[in-house]
Design a protein that fits this description.
With 255 residues, this protein is mainly beta. The chain is built from 2 helices and 14 strands; from the N terminus they run E-E-H-E-E-H-E-E-E-E-E-E-E-E-E-E. It has a 12-stranded antiparallel β-sheet. A two-stranded antiparallel ribbon has the order 11-12. Strand 3 and strand 4 form a beta hairpin. The longest helix has 8 residues. It starts with 12 loop residues before the first strand and ends with a strand.
Length: 255
């Protein structure tokens, strides 16, 4: 059966958003979309409402989150909740945790309510541990886990270790192929206006595999990936001048 009206050019859609805050530390949020007569969006044919109509569905949960946060311990489950900025401003210099800032786009393309998973963060005198994982914490990447440990500050030195283990969507040999990465990140403010960053990365992905390399003269050569190819490094200095320019930086990255 079809929900599409064959005579009228009209359709109905409604969104319901329910938020709860039963205690000081516990909160929740759930959003649902309902559709009536689905009106063909010929100018925008790929959309989840069209899939819902084809599957004879009138309702779908499109976002949900439940969270416990007392300042030292955070536990939360999420689905379809955007993740802005990730850890980029928190000493994840190589950006191992990607942003997920457009859940509506992900749902429109393939119907997935992503990102989807859970998070645990614990702060103590030994440092801070933040772990994010689940069935699809990164759109299309399947089951994955991301973890970051922030060591206690030594003077002005900030140090972090970041771990990533993903079920990649671009594997040809197996749909369960995974990629794991580990990085060490350090940041040091020399003054209020000058800050330095340095990091080392290790990603042993598809080692001892043949591949083709093309140089600047378009010469093609056959190479084999080695253990040394798994290492990367970066160093950067950022300066905030008193006027005219907000920020200037100079750095080098080897990947």
């Amino acid at each position: 059966p079809s929900q599409e009206d064959q005579t009228a050019r009209s359709g109905q859609a409604a969104f319901f958003d329910l938020s709860l805050h039963p205690t000081k530390y516990i909160s929740g949020d759930i959003a649902t979309e309902l559709i009536g007569n689905y009106d063909q969006a010929y100018w925008f044919p790929v959309n989840d409402e069209h899939r819902m109509a084809n599957d004879d569905k009138t309702a779908k949960i499109v976002r949900g989150e439940i969270k416990y946060d007392d300042g030292n311990v955070l536990l939360r489950g999420f689905e379809g909740v955007p993740r802005y900025g990730a850890w980029l401003g928190q000493n994840d210099l190589f950006g191992l945790l990607p942003t997920q800032d457009d859940p509506e786009y992900y749902r429109r393309i393939d119907g997935s309510v992503a990102p989807r998973g859970g998070e645990m963060r614990v702060k103590s005198m030994l440092g801070t541990l933040d772990v994010i994982g689940g069935t699809e914490p990164r759109w299309t990447y399947g089951s994955s886990i991301y973890a970051k440990y922030d060591a206690p500050t030594v003077g002005n030195l900030e140090q972090s270790v970041v771990y990533r283990n993903e079920n990649i969507p671009f594997g040809f040999e197996s749909p369960d192929e995974r990629r794991w990465t580990l990085s060490y990140n350090a940041s040091y403010p020399f003054s209020d206006r000058v800050q330095g960053h340095a990091g080392v990365l290790y990603q042993p992905f598809r080692l001892d595999r043949p591949y083709q390399d093309v140089d600047s003269s378009n010469n093609v050569s056959q190479e084999t990936s080695k253990r040394s190819d798994a290492f990367g490094a970066m160093a950067r200095v950022e300066v905030r001048p008193p006027q005219w320019v907000d920020k200037a930086g100079l750095g080098y990255t080897y990947l």
